[in-house]
Amino acid sequence: MLTHSLGFPRMGIDRELKKVTEAYWKGEKGEQDLLEQGAQLRVRHWEIQAGQGVDLLPVGDFSHYDHMLDTVALLGAVPARYGWEGGSVDTDTYFRMARGDAGHGGATAMEMTKWFDTNYHYIVPEFTEGQTFSLSSTKIFDELDEAVAAGYAAKPVLPGPFTFIGLGKSVPPGFDRWEHLDAIVAVYEEVLGRLSAKCAWVQLDEPLLALDLDAAVTDRFAAVYERLATAAGSAKILVATYFGGVDHHAETLLSLPVGGVHVDLVRAPEQLDAFAARLPEAMHLSLGLVDGRNVWKVDMDKALELVDRAVLAVGADRVMLAPSCSLLHTPVDLSAETGLDAQVREWMAFAVQKCAELDVLRRAAVGQDAQEELAANRAAWDARRSSPLTANAAVRERMESVNETMARRVRPYAERIVSQRERLKLPLLPTTTIGSFPQTPEIRRTRLAFKKGELAKAGYTQAMQGFIAESIEKQEQLGLDVLVHGEAERNDMVEYFGEQLDGFCFTANGWVQSYGSRCVKPPVIFGDVFRPGPMTVEWIRYAQSLTDKPVKGMLTGPVTILQWSFVRDDQPRSETCRQIALAVRDEVVDLEADGVAVIQIDEPALREGLPLRRDLWKEYLDWGVECFRLSASGVQDHTQIHTHMCYAEFNDIIEWIAAMDADVISIEASRSNMELLEAFGRFDYPAEVGPGVYDIHSPRVPPVQEMVDLLRRASKVLPVDHLWVNPDCGLKTRGWPETMEALANMVEAAAKAREILK
């Protein structure tokens, strides 16, 4: 009974990859330093997984930026604007696709969006008419050679051709990118032919199958995988699915001439029988038993019940054990987290521990001694189920008192906006930012010194006020209309709030990759959530005292706090979300009472949390929107509620976005050249919209005319008096010089657009 891993975290326990990558971008490290650090991490991660008993180790899951971007390079699918002339895709071209060209007028970065319903962002492949494809990277072959030379049983991992195309983008939008399937498969055949000589298994990830797909797509799987299986020769192909049930595609998957199918039994345990009962004799069934998306220990008794059912149906020699998906979405190692509450820590498992859990499950399933580990696991689960840490009577009582009127504003937007405009007195096309300003080394050092006890609270408060004052001064210098305090005191937009809410705990080093070199350290929700006291009022009050212009109160919304945390799995997510919504509501009411006229409640994760199957959307969106409204609706008409969303397709959920009843929504729009805004125009969106006019994830400073052109395009979709002008997202990852230059251009672009569009 083989165990295997679908993928492992890339950054390293100390975020080594992040540090060397950012040093490379700054010119402080060379390409060789970058490549050597990557090689060291790969070897270390193979050693870790093998040491925990994993049989087949993933190769190709490591990336210097993103696995979909790696596949763009592999297939030579480089957009023309980067000036690539063929051959091997070099490092500079690779990063230019991810980040754009720095300086004026350079090529824009490729679009980035969320990987299914995770907080990981992938680079979106672009497909154009007449595009050609060729094998243009040796990365996967080089890494397989490294693993084989080190003596490991390696399993190359690649996005499958259907997922690669299905998650791509047609340029222009009307082009049928599936026309390229045959040409792309031809390159995959070449890749598999080269890999097969040195490995027994190749994993092709097809999580696209967890979505609702047209028959025109699924009908092509058999012919394509016939070609791929032939090209792979003696190597077996494992088609990996995850993030949801794929039993609606069971007939398609079980008809493929492949060596195995992987199914996610954490998200969809009910799908086991659809595969085990009909598995062809030549096929293996990989069971995704250990949660690759969360930090809780597997319930081994429940997992072994699934293993026993599979073994009974197909035999132990055709069952494989694995995490539900790549462990990319979990922190690396729990052993260093000595600061966690000992009781809560006993309930948890990170990537290293999850690999060890697989070995225990395998030993137990085949009759080897695992009684000690099983008993310890059972004790941990019993302790968690009965622990007083997880339940708060006051929170439960308040939840019972929630009613429909608490989730409704007093008057509709069309009436509220009159009093808001009278109060704010803003110009046409008002300018603002999304919330954060650059987190300088000085800011980070100050926060760290306070956290370590090296800086007293009075000194910390004084220092933070200095950073806030600097942000306000710079914004007034730029001429922005609605200001922000800059969020110098915030380590992260979710972690900051979690630290002030009961029911959360925090890791010291539980980093997870979000995109590129960007890592986040999600809080862990283990118990009922409530707000002991105000979280932001003091900082916003100070910022507002420095200016006559309105300063936004900045909050993270309940759905985003939920989605970007590791959430307790012992009650419905909707219940946890409502608890968070009540805590945010209390903060909103306190901000308004303090005189704050504009309050932004960010919900970038609303779209991300959608179930992958459309028939499950309504239930989730109903409670998600209700939670936002519950958090926002305790204010008077003249208080303006903003929200922000980024890197999400809005077409399919625009009616629910409208149902959130925010007065202003700001969205990411520049990478898509305002394409994302079109959904708001088709729907006749009733409120105001701030389409982002420049991409903050790129060091590139856009010229004034480019932003004017984007605003012109936006004005053709929405009434000009419903438009705001802002960046795509927060500015914490940028430096002050480029931020000031870009915002100065943005303010100038708004002024020019006012003259043109008034």
UniProtKB/TrEMBL annotation:
It comes from the Bacteria. Keywords: Amino-acid biosynthesis, Metal-binding, Methionine biosynthesis, Methyltransferase, Repeat, Transferase, Zinc. InterPro entries: Cbl-indep_Met_Synth_N, Cobalamin-indep_Met_synthase, Met_Synth_C/arc, UROD/MetE-like_sf. Residues 429-751 form the Cobalamin-independent methionine synthase MetE C-terminal/archaeal domain. Zn(2+) binds at residues 644, 646, 668, 729. One of its GO terms (biological process) is L-methionine biosynthetic process. It holds the Pfam family Meth_synt_2. Its EC number is 2.1.1.14. The keyword Methyltransferase applies. SUPFAM superfamilies: UROD/MetE-like (SSF51726). Binds 2 Zn(2+) ions per subunit. Binds 1 zinc ion per subunit. L-homocysteine binds at residues 434-436, 487, 602. It is an enzyme of class 2 (transferase). Residues 3-309 form the Cobalamin-independent methionine synthase MetE N-terminal domain. Pathway: Amino-acid biosynthesis; L-methionine biosynthesis via de novo pathway; L-methionine from L-homocysteine (MetE route): step 1/1. GO terms for molecular function: 5-methyltetrahydropteroyltriglutamate-homocysteine S-methyltransferase activity; zinc ion binding. The keyword Repeat applies. Transmembrane segments: none annotated. The active site is at 697 (proton donor). Its cofactor is Zn(2+). Catalyzes the transfer of a methyl group from 5-methyltetrahydrofolate to homocysteine resulting in methionine formation. HAMAP family: Meth_synth. Belongs to the vitamin-B12 independent methionine synthase family. This is 5-methyltetrahydropteroyltriglutamate--homocysteine methyltransferase. It comes from Pseudodesulfovibrio senegalensis. The lineage of its organism: Bacteria, Pseudomonadati, Thermodesulfobacteriota, Desulfovibrionia, Desulfovibrionales.
